[in-house]
Amino acid sequence: MYDIGVGMVMRKMGNSATPTVTFTEAAGEYTMKTVTTFKTSEVKFKLNTPFKETTMDGREAESTFTLDGSILTQIQKASKGPDVKYIREFTANELITTCEVGEVKSIRTYKRN
Prior knowledge:
globular
């Protein structure tokens, strides 16, 4: 988070959060909803279609999602600061999210309900 310009307070809140992430799909439009005790974010997107979004930390970006089997990739091109790549791998029991900013990678694993 430091590498994309997130301040210390937001980093501490983000690291202590236990988010619930849900994905739904209707007529080719996907919704990704992330809920924490601090903030809720909902992103609607169509695959392979760039769109503008405001990230949970307030950055403006253009995102594009692609799907390859069970791997959902998001390329987030920021209007200011570095671009971010999210790779979300869905397994039978988990969602494994890898975040890449330049050479820095972080991995967060969610249990599937």
